[in-house]
Specification:
Layout lengths: L17 H4 L2 H9 L3 H6 L16 E4 L11 H18 L6 E5 L8 H11 L4 E5 L6 E2 L12 E8 L14 E8 L2 H9 L6 E8 L3 E5 L5 E6 L3 E5 L6 E6 L7 H5 L4 H6 L7 E6 L1 H5 L17 E6 L4 H12 L6 E6 L27 E7 L3 H12 L6 E6 L5 H9 L8 E4 L4
Length: 426
């Protein structure tokens, strides 16, 4: 019998699969866009992928890092702890970022152990968000980590060891719902010479904010405090401050006749965006309010202020800022509704609106007004001294304020192309 010729095996049978043929940098790019749980699961694709996830530089443990098959918080917590232990044990590459933020996580002592491991791996970004339970005390080992560039803490208590010398490479610090003492806060800020961004929200343990940061460019704060001062902050360009404390009852006790407004702007010569939220305009109005600042805010192009239109000192403070900002192009004014029916320093003379230079405003938004005379006077002033104004949006505090619209249409405008948009409240 004639022997049949054996057909050679198909060449494609010996070719590796397409996933295994991908270049290493492509695999890294794919893994970087996956949640950590999915990245670990790619280990079953091929031998080339098996431990590739273990070199991921960014480790994020959040609500997506494991499936929720149980409603028992204890089971969820234990599974999360096992996952983190497993990942850190097998991880073989550099760790640039470590983020722990899970809705069912409370402060556990395992965090101390993980923090020690990460400091030995020279982690650059450390984010810890404790969403439940008491504020977690940050372990002392974290304060020795000089590789940190970004530090973000939520619901934590900071008490550095006496040997703490600051974070020499830290550029971004975000502290929310934190507790720390006055001296700790001041030492922390002044001991971070490279600090560029500072966010501080809902803090306790100190009431005076002394900011000494020569490289600071972005500052966002909201909370209850009594005083704020800047030193060596000449690079600061974006500032947002919300004061959640009404100072009306103790103004004289705080500052006497000195001017908070003058003190605030001494070390802010290059501020570009300024947001004055909650009661902070009331704080700035304490003491003598000048007609304009000794040094104008040349770079200020955006200003947002929340004010009580029934307080003449707050109006004077706002007008001072406008006179001192020759290049301001965008203005947002939000009325504080809780005080709009309370008269505080009610008499604001017409001379307050005089001697004002021509403004460069292009876009204005007025929100929460009800059509009172102080509000209308302020709006009329803006229209009269803004020859390049393009759009003004006015939103009343409630619907049905029809008289307000009629008044707005009667106001003279310095800009022939200024458009007034009346935005009804829902």
């Amino acid at each position: 019998m004639r022997r049949e010729q054996v057909q050679p095996a198909c060449h494609s049978d010996f070719e590796p699969d397409r996933l295994s043929c991908l270049p290493g940098h492509v695999i890294d790019q794919i893994l970087s866009h996956l949640p950590l749980r999915e990245a670990v699961r790619t280990s079953v694709l091929s031998s080339k992928w098996r431990y590739k996830w273990a070199t991921l530089p960014n480790l994020v443990f959040d609500n997506q890092c494991h499936s929720v098959a149980s409603q028992d918080h204890s089971d969820i917590k234990n599974k999360l702890l096992r996952i983190i232990d497993h990942v850190l044990l097998l991880h073989a590459g550099a760790i640039n970022k470590f983020k722990l933020s899970h809705r069912d996580l409370i402060g556990v002592t395992d965090i101390d152990r993980w923090s020690l491991h990460l400091t030995r791996r020279s982690v650059k970004e450390f984010v810890l968000e404790i969403w439940k339970g008491q504020r977690y005390k940050i372990p002392s080992c974290l304060f020795t980590c000089q590789s940190l560039v970004h530090l973000e803490l939520f619901n934590c208590w900071l008490k550095p060891p006496s040997t703490f010398q600051g974070f020499k490479n830290l550029k971004s610090l975000d502290l929310q719902h934190v507790t720390l003492a006055q001296d700790v806060f001041e030492n922390l800020i002044s001991s971070c010479p490279m600090l560029e961004r500072l966010t501080l929200m809902n803090f306790d343990g100190f009431a005076n904010l002394n900011i000494d940061a020569p490289n600071l460019q972005f500052f966002d704060i909201g909370g209850k405090f009594e005083d704020i001062s800047f030193e060596n902050t000449f690079q600061l360009s974006v500032v947002s401050i919300g004061l959640y404390l009404n100072f009306e009852t103790n103004q004289n006790r705080l500052r006497g006749s000195s001017s908070n407004l003058l003190k605030f702007f001494v070390h802010l010569p290059h501020v570009r965006r300024l947001e004055v939220q909650s009661y902070f305009l009331k704080y700035l109005a304490i003491g003598a309010v000048p007609l304009k600042l000794p040094r104008p805010c040349i770079d200020l192009s955006y200003l947002s202020i929340r004010m009580n239109f029934n307080d003449s000192k707050e109006i004077s403070t706002a007008l001072c800022l406008l006179r001192s900002s020759p290049n301001l192009q965008e203005l947002e004014v939000l009325a504080r509704p809780d005080e709009q029916n309370v008269l505080i320093h009610p008499y604001c003379g017409e001379d307050e609106y005089c001697s004002c230079p021509i403004m460069q405003l292009r876009h204005v938004r007025i929100d929460g007004v009800s059509g009172t005379k102080p509000e209308l006077d302020f709006i009329s002033f803006l229209l009269l001294y803004s020859p390049v104004l393009e759009r003004m949006t006015v939103k009343p505090v409630s619907s049905g304020v029809t008289e307000l619209m009629k008044e707005l249409l009667r106001f003279r405008r310095a800009s022939g192309r200024a458009e007034i948009i009346y935005q009804e409240s829902p």
